[in-house]
Amino acid sequence: MIAAAAAREAVSAATDALAAAGCDTPRLDAELLIADAMGVDRGALIADPEQGVPGAAARLIGERVRRRVMREPVAYILGTKGFRHIDLAVDSRVLVPRPETELLVEVALELPEGASVHEVGTGSGAVALALLSERPDLKVSASDASPAAVEVARANARRLRLPVELSVERGVPEGDFELVLANLPYVSEAEWRGLQPEIVRHEPRDALVAGPDGLETITELVEGSPAGTQLALEHAPHQADAVRELLRGAETLRDLAGRERVTLGAVP
Ligand SMILES: C[S@@+](CC[C@H](N)C(=O)[O-])C[C@H]1O[C@@H](n2cnc3c(N)ncnc32)[C@H](O)[C@@H]1O
User: Distance of CA 67 to CAs 88, 117, 164, Å?
Assistant: First the structure.
C-alpha cells in the first residue's frame, strides 16, 4: 500500500502554487483549505504536520487549490465565513462579509431595549443576523435588492435559528425603524477595475459598484427615505465628507484601522 503523503508536503506544495498565482497569504490559505479538507482545525494541522493525508482529502485539496489558483476567495471555496460570533454560509451570490462592517453591528448594539432596526442590502445577512444573535431583544428586519442574496440570507437565518424578517426590496421598506443600517455598494467604476482578482472575477459586481463616484446607491437610499429616518451608512474613508453632506447631524465613526468608515445621521 502506498503511504499517504504527509500534511507538511501538501501544505508546502499548495503554498508554492498559491504564491505563484499571486495570492496575498498563500500559507494561511493553504492551511485553511487543507485542514478543512482533512476534517481537522488549522491548529491541529500545524501541531501535527507529519499526519498522513487520506486519498479522499488529497483529491479535495487538489480541487480546492485549483479553485484558489483561479483566485476564488477562500470563503467561497469553504462555503463559510465567520463574522463576529456567527458563521455564515456564503457563495458567489453574496459579498464575503468584511471585518470593517462589524462596526455597523457595534453601532446598533447601543440601541435601547426592544428597538426596531432594519438593514438595507443585507447580502448573506451578516449584519442583521450578528446583531440579533447579540441582542435578541431587538426587532431586526433586513432586505436586499437581489432575490438571490435574500435566498442566501434566509438560509443563514434558518440555520442559525435567528428570526430576522427578510424581504426583496430596493431602498428602505415602509416601517417604523429607530435605526436603518446599510453597507451598500460604494466602489466607483474606475476603482473596480483596479481591485484584486478575488473581487473582480468572483464577487457580485452589483454588490460593490455604485456609479462613477461610488456614491450613487448611498445617495439614492438617502433621497428615497422618509425625512427624519436615522441612518448608519458604511462607506469608503475618502467618501466621509460627501456622506456627511447628505445627512443632518452627521457624525462619522472610525474602523479599527482608524479610517472614517460609518456615518450616522438623519435624512434631512
Ligand atoms: C456591499 S454588499 C453588502 C452585503 C452585506 N451587508 C455585508 O456587509 O456583507 C451590498 C448589498 O446591497 C445590495 N444592494 C445594492 N443596491 C441596493 C439597493 N438600492 N437597495 C437594497 N439593496 C441593495 C446588493 O445586492 C448587496 O447584497
Answer: 20, 38, 33
- Whole-angstrom distance between the N-terminal and C-terminal Cα of the chain? 74
What residues are in contact with ligand 1 under a 6 Å CB criterion? Answer: 94-95, 97, 101, 120-124, 126-127, 144-146, 149, 170-171, 183-185, 206-208, 217, 220
In eight-state DSSP terms, residue 238 is G
From 124, 206, 208, 223, the mutation candidate for ligand 1 (largest count of ligand atoms within 8 A of CB) is: 206
The separation between CA 222 and the C-alpha centre of its own chain, rounded to angstroms, equals: 22
- pLDDT tens-digit series, residues 25-66: 999 999 999 999 999 999 999 999 999 999 999 999 999 999
pTM above the 0.85 mark? yes
Tell me how far apart the alpha carbons of residues 13 and 229 are, in angstroms, rounded to a whole number: 54
User: In terms of C-beta density within 10 A (0-12 exposed, 13-18 middle, 19 or more buried), how is residue 61 classed?
Assistant: buried
Q: Rounded CA gap, 260 and 144, in Å? A: 25
